[in-house]
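Interim report to the steering committee. The following record documents the input for Vacuolar iron transporter (221 residues).
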Amino acid sequence: MESNQPSLHDPKFTVPISDVEQQASQLENEAKEFDYSKRSQWLRAAVLGANDGLVSTASLMMGVGAVKQDIKAMILTGFAGLVAGACSMAIGEFVSVYSQLDIEVAQRKRDKRRVGSGESEEEEGEKENLPNPVQAAAASALAFAVGAMVPLLAASFIREYKVRLGAVIAAVTVALVVFGWLGAVLGKVPAFRSCMRVLVGGWLAMAITFGLTKLIGSSGL
């Protein structure tokens, strides 16, 4: 006697793919495709701060070295540039990012009033992506100080004037290449162009500062 009950092998009763398996596959694909734009806020602040600290402090030291061979004058100038630059970067970044935060918060409030709905889970997630002024300021100040320490350390233990200038230039060159490469790797952009852009810019800044200071110093002003 044949049973009228449907069989599991019947095409009509094919078991569908589990939703859990689909979600797991989707999460795996999302994990592989990392959104590098999320790094843009802190990466921009860190790279900008490090390069500014490196180039500005080295340029100040080279400028002083153009007219004074005293190691003490060069080191004090570099240290003053480190402190002043780190404070300036932190304050500037804090004000800039806080202004951006105010604009985004105000826009979201206007959007919420227009829609007239309560706060959703999506809005809660968007709050986490808002710019953080304190984080940006701290990253800028710390990165500036790290960059500024490179020429300071390079010049601190060398008494000979020409050797000291050469050591500063060599150390700054290596650091510029490293910072350019690091920014390129973290941001997934071409490394060679990034390194050359940073390197040529740093060299120009030091050369212009040294040359103009030497010119003014030799004129007796």
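DSSP finds seven helices and no strands in the chain. The committee is asked to note this result when reviewing the revised timeline.
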